Amino acid sequence: MTTLNDYFQSYLTATSSDSSSEKSAVIDVINTITTVGKEITELLRKGALADIHGEAGAENVQGEQQKKLDVIANDLLLDALTANKHCAGVASEELDDATPANESGELLVLFDPLDGSSNIDINMPTGTIFSILPHNNKGQAVTNADFLQKGTEQLAAGYLLYGSSAMLAFTFSDALDSNNDGVILFSLNPTTGEFELVKKNISIDADTKEYAINASNARHWLPPMQQYINELLAGTTGPRGKNFNTRWVAAMVGDVHRILCRGGIFIYPKDTKDPSKAGKLRLMYEANPMSLLIERAGGASTDAINRIMDYEPTDIHQRVPVVLGAKNEVEQVQKLHQQA
Ligand SMILES: O=P(O)(O)OC[C@H]1O[C@](O)(COP(=O)(O)O)[C@@H](O)[C@@H]1O
Ligand SMILES: [Mg+2]
Ligand SMILES: [Mg+2]
């Protein structure tokens, strides 16, 4: 049995001295996030018996009604991370602007404190998604502009999944992954309170028969996306020549976790419902961190045409269409969009 602490110790031992301080800073930040993840797990276990269900009575910067647990999870992460000496500042899906932390900190942390908010009150899977970037203006108080870095600049990213068990998945950037472990999965042992290693080097098959999309929006999708899904629905009678199955957790963290476990494609496409929104999901708190995990596991992540991690962000709350998972399916979506 390898605990998260054991794993981090061996990771640091395998690390050359030139990058060891950056690596130990990243590890320290992940440890802070996982400590908060355990607190959120406890709250969710109490469920209706804790005061975590229902609306908080406020709207966030995204124009969405906040749930009580959105606010609680956000505050827990904010408090813990701003107290971490390596953290120069945080940006959260729930907060209008970046929050400065420690001026000597070398890292920026971005998070979706509670992903899948509509699942909270019905005891279904939720999660916390995080992304860690370098603070390139070290010594200066952070501004929103410091966070506007491409997904390819991420030093590490991951999520906590609060499902029937609590799990942690993360990956370092290629440059920081001295053990070549790729995407790593841990499970929280409820008896010891420790995360224990389940799997390293998670790999996503290039092909799949399983897709995730909220089909209630079908009439608003662009024609190539409608064509793609219609071809999947036609099964053995259509051009794809095989039957596909649908799964939709309504929490991206759950859908991405399923893809890491058994493959598939996840889509939250561009639609014409609200022309002011390019997509539903947030580039900095959802799309970029999940893209790093998916690509490091051998999958692909695009907006239907372009790679997500190549986006030059213009706003910390920017939204993007997302098509990620099994490489050959993502390519098929790209092909249909390029032909249109
Ligand atoms: O309710 P819909 O439209 O199916 O959207 C579900 C999607 O919205 C999200 O819940 C957005 O996340 P938040 O709960 O953090 O706002 C994704 O996790 C999920 O994939
Ligand atoms: Mg979310
Ligand atoms: Mg959220």
Automatic annotation (TrEMBL):
Ranges where the Fructose-1-6-bisphosphatase class I N-terminal domain occurs: 20-199
One Gene Ontology biological process: gluconeogenesis
InterPro entries for the chain: FBPase_C_dom, FBPase_class-1, FBPase_N, FBPtase
MF terms in GO: fructose 1,6-bisphosphate 1-phosphatase activity; magnesium ion binding
ATP-binding recorded as keyword: no
Top-rank EC class of the record's enzyme: hydrolase
SUBUNIT field: Homotetramer.
Family in the record: Belongs to the FBPase class 1 family.
Protein name: Fructose-1,6-bisphosphatase class 1
Organism: Psychrobacter piechaudii
